[in-house]
Amino acid sequence: MRLVLASNNAKKLVELQTLFAPLGLELVTQGSLGIPEAEEPHVTFVENALEKARHAAAHAQSAAIADDSGLCVDTLGGSPGVLSARYATLFGRPKDDDENNRVLLEQMDDKEDRRARFVSALVAVRSADDPEPLIAFGRWDGVVLWEPRGEGGFGYDPLLFIPSLGKSVAELDAATKNAHSHRAIASQQMLALMREVWHLG
C-alpha cells in the first residue's frame, strides 16, 4: 500500500520510514509527486495535520499521512507550538533552525521554569473524504537548555534536554531517538490503529 507523506522534510521521511517499516508500507513524499504544500492555518497540531493529510490525499488520490509537530514551552504559554518551524519569522528573522533556536533562547533568557515538550500529531486518511481519520498523539517531556548541545537531529533538538536519558535530543543516536521520541510514541499508536482499523500488517 502506498502512503503519501504530507511533507517534503527528508529527515522526517527517514524517521517515519523506519518507524513504519513493520507494516511494509511504501512511504513517498508529496513533493516527489508534484503536490504543493498545504496551508497550515490552525492553532492546534491535530487540525493542521488533518488539513495536510486531506490535501495530500486529494492530490494523490490515495491514502496519506501527515505529521504536525513542534516544541511547546510551558512558561511561554505553549509557544512556539504550531509555529515552531517558522518561530523566528515572528521576530523579523529568517525561517531557519538556527535562527529559531536563537530566538527561543532569547525568549527564555530570564525564565527559570524551563519545562517543555516535543509534541507530534499524526493523522492518516484513506482518502480526502475519509470520515474516520486515524489520529495519534505523542509527547516527549524535557527542559530547555541554556545553550545548544549536540550535532544530530534537526529543529530544536539541540535545545531540548531529556532528563531520563541525560542528553539533549541532538546528542542521541538515531536508534535511541526513534525508540523514545514524540514521533515514535505517536507512530506506535498509529501502527496499532492501522492494524486494527485498516487491517494492515
From TrEMBL:
Mg(2+) binds at residues 39, 68. It catalyses: dITP + H2O = dIMP + diphosphate + H(+); ITP + H2O = IMP + diphosphate + H(+); XTP + H2O = XMP + diphosphate + H(+). InterPro entries: dITP/XTP_pyrophosphatase, ITPase-like_fam, RdgB/HAM1. The keyword Zinc does not apply. It is an enzyme of class 3 (hydrolase). The keyword Glycoprotein does not apply. Keywords: Hydrolase, Magnesium, Metal-binding, Nucleotide metabolism, Nucleotide-binding. Substrate binds at residues 7-12, 69, 154-157, 177, 182-183. Its EC number is 3.6.1.66. The active site is at residue 68. Binds 1 Mg(2+) ion per subunit. Its cofactor is Mg(2+). Homodimer. Pyrophosphatase that catalyzes the hydrolysis of nucleoside triphosphates to their monophosphate derivatives, with a high preference for the non-canonical purine nucleotides XTP (xanthosine triphosphate), dITP (deoxyinosine triphosphate) and ITP. Seems to function as a house-cleaning enzyme that removes non-canonical purine nucleotides from the nucleotide pool, thus preventing their incorporation into DNA/RNA and avoiding chromosomal lesions. Belongs to the HAM1 NTPase family. This is dITP/XTP pyrophosphatase. It comes from Piscinibacter gummiphilus.
